[in-house]
Amino acid sequence: MKFSTQLFPETPLQRVRWPITDAAGVHFFVKREDLINPYWSGNKWYKLRGNVDAMKSQNKIGMVSFGGGYSNHLHALAYCGKALQIPTVGIVRGDYRHQLTPTLRDCEAAGMTLRFVDRKTYAQRYHPTFAAQLDPNLADYWVIPEGGANREGVLGCQVIAQSIQHQLDQHLRCFDLSSSSHKSSIPTPFQVFVPCGTATTLMGLISSLPEWANVHGVSVLKGEDTLTERVKQLLLDYGIKPHCQWSILTGYHSGGYGKFPPDLKAFMQAFEAECGFLLDPIYTVKMMRAIAAGVESGRWSKGDVVVAIHTGGLQGRRGYDLPM
Ligand SMILES: *Cc1c(COP(=O)(O)O)cnc(C)c1O
Q1: Residue 59: what are its φ and ψ, rounded to 5°?
Q2: What is the pLDDT of residues 107-150, one digit of tens each?
Q3: pLDDT per residue over 261-274, tens digit each?
Q4: Any catalytic annotation for residue 71?
Q5: How close is the Cα of 47 to the center of ligand 1, in Å?
Q6: Which of 179, 210, 256, 288 is the most buried (most CB within 10 A)?
Q7: Catalytic one among 41, 65, 71, 208?
């Protein structure tokens, strides 16, 4: 794999020939946020960008956040801190002191200070002064919620939408897709798929994509039937307005967060062989499956434009013994 050496690269939007979309005549594109870097890959990096800006304006001296032993978010935060020379602290659910996961080993190597807390303590992470109560030194740190799920994270993710719109325009002009089924004065509608944990990334997209886009979030957690309502409330709290249509699909969690049953693995291996790039087992594979289901059921067909956001997370493959 070839990764960017820039801190803020613009990732490519690639036309991908996938037999499933090809057979249906669907124009399939993938926004390759996994190519930013294996470490601060994907959407986590955009969320952190928004938070770094906030940290600086608040005159904080470092950043502290929370996560599990395989957290993409802590991983990205550690490397972000290293790259920008900002001290970082990771508060980790569970005691991994004597058996650091590959993710946590990377975090430490990147200079992050790790603090391990038990599940009961970790449950208090949403309390605004939780970090400072744990360690008074953290009072001067910018606190980032688990997963980078805050308003700054949403604003950071708007950059993805701006880039997609611009790049898709270029592709459509190039393939002349717009003139075939739509009058050139009318923008070509397009479908955007994004995996959802907290839906922070989704909120960044829907607040920045144009009204002719339709965004489909694919929830990777089980029992997230209320996620749509939560997103609506958060948008109000953040004072952010969606411009396009959006919805959240809840039927593709494959058993729940982190669950990776054999059928999902088989789907992933087929996809990787057919398309020539890797997916992560927690998020992007479930999104691709939702797209496959939509195409196979005839929901998307000839001439439709479907954009999948590869949000990265490849470092998480190590937790499943998948080759990098
Ligand atoms: C965290 C993560 C997501 C989920 O992002 P949210 O903004 O929390 O919805 C999706 N994909 C990958 C690879 C992630 O690491």
Answers
A1: 55, 35
A2: 999 999 999 999 999 999 999 999 999 999 999 999 999 999 99
A3: 999 999 999 999 99
A4: yes
A5: 10
A6: 288
A7: 71
